[in-house]
UniProtKB/TrEMBL annotation, chains A, B:
PANTHER family referenced in this protein's UniProt entry, alphabetically: C-1-TETRAHYDROFOLATE SYNTHASE, CYTOPLASMIC, C-1-TETRAHYDROFOLATE SYNTHASE, CYTOPLASMIC-RELATED
Organism: Ameca splendens
Chain ranges of the Tetrahydrofolate dehydrogenase/cyclohydrolase catalytic domain: 3-40
Name this polypeptide is given: methenyltetrahydrofolate cyclohydrolase
Lineage, opening ranks: Eukaryota, Metazoa, Chordata, Craniata, Vertebrata
Gene: MTHFD1_2
Listed CDD domains: NAD_bind_m-THF_DH_Cyclohyd (cd01080)
Reactions catalysed: (6R)-5,10-methenyltetrahydrofolate + H2O = (6R)-10-formyltetrahydrofolate + H(+)
Tetrahydrofolate dehydrogenase/cyclohydrolase NAD(P)-binding domain boundaries: 61-208
Pfam families (alphabetical): THF_DHG_CYH, THF_DHG_CYH_C
Family annotation (InterPro entries): Aminoacid_DH-like_N_sf, NAD(P)-bd_dom_sf, THF_DH/CycHdrlase, THF_DH/CycHdrlase_cat_dom, THF_DH/CycHdrlase_CS, THF_DH/CycHdrlase_NAD-bd_dom
Keywords, in A-Z order: Hydrolase, Multifunctional enzyme, One-carbon metabolism, Oxidoreductase
Known EC number: 3.5.4.9
Enzyme class: hydrolase
């Protein structure tokens, strides 16, 4: 692709989801992006590097990268903690597991087939939820003092709103806020970080291109 | 490389470890193997596919693939179980996590920075150990009836042997055998499966090449 070859372009993303009606092969398209310009971090090569801990040699997907930045901002150290991730998607759960693991947390991944979610959540020092189910995680499940990061964006009916609906996360905020040491709201928590991390990845990409071009002189 | 392009060759592996004295870049060499012939499953692309659950479109590293086959042979279903993996290496821990997860277990990855290993092990319905520390996992940690898969190969001093040493796993077999429902010995457990899986991956590769060549006619 010409954009892959254009040296003045440092980042290239595929706006997902692709039209599912025409059965576009999403994997084929996302992997057509040069790994050097894959600032969304969604190509197989970048996912493989991340899964093996090569954090400085890949692009980290923006949402989990933003979650890590939020966790860092709490001042809570990740190493030696128990991290629990709910969800195993390519853009949230799977890379979030990798990031927590390679920042030296012990990590448990939960998903729709996990039979004892409340118990698993109760063991989390750091909880990241990307399940796509409105207010699924209840406050009483949360460990006292835990860091709770909510990646959910769900629309639920609300007759008090002009639109007839409102946005909630995957965590029941009001009750979880009673127990968590730190918690992100929805909206306004993880969402804005995702955009910021896309910019950061793009700047990082430009720096890498510049360094490579200098070393080739 | 000519071997990558030779259509009569369906599998190509790099014998690891590479000579560390000459600082050979192992990543560079393993990723030079065509993903289509990477029957060790060690390239970034295959690792990325596995980490995202594309199990039928990748080569699965041989040791964890053999572990999964051993687990299947017990008749214990993986879905909904709690799997615990000790170790996060490229050839055992990381891909084992992916395999258990995408066979729908809830999975916890432990490692050298895990502070409460006995408690984590005690929650495992399925325990896979690839830590490289002789007899580190004690029988009293193991959940009653658990499936215990030991990938460790450690040489310990033994004056009763002519060689002055013997091979043990990462699990203290005698005590763990008292509690486990199923347990693999060392030597003779996982080891022979690894070789078998390398053969299976190579046959699978040949089949894929054949199917592709037929579909191109």
């Amino acid at each position: 692709m010409s954009v892959n070859e254009n040296l003045s372009v440092h980042g290239l993303i595929v706006q997902l989801p692709l039209d599912s009606i025409n059965r576009i092969d999403t994997e084929l398209i996302t992997n057509a992006v040069s790994p050097d310009k894959d600032v969304d971090g969604l190509s197989c090569i970048n996912a493989g590097k991340l899964s093996r801990g090569d954090l400085n040699d890949c692009f980290i997907p923006c949402t989990p990268n933003g979650c890590m930045e939020l966790i860092r901002q709490t001042g809570v150290s990740v190493a030696g903690k128990h991290g629990v991730v709910i969800g195993r998607s390519k853009i949230v759960g799977a890379p979030m597991h990798d990031l927590l693991l390679w920042n030296h947390a012990t990590v448990t991944t939960c998903h729709s087939k996990t039979p004892d979610l409340p118990e698993q959540v109760g063991r989390a020092d750091i909880l990241v939820v990307g399940a796509g189910r409105a207010e699924m995680v209840r406050g009483e499940w949360v460990k006292e003092g835990a860091v709770v990061i909510d990646c959910g964006i769900n629309h639920v009916p609300d007759e008090t709103k002009a639109s007839g609906k409102r946005v909630v996360g995957d965590v029941h905020y009001a009750s979880a806020n009673q127990r968590a040491g730190f918690i992100t709201p929805v909206p306004g928590g993880v969402g804005p970080m995702t955009v910021a991390m896309l910019m950061e990845n793009t700047v990082q990409s430009a720096q890498r291109f510049l360094l490579r071009s200098q070393s080739h002189r």
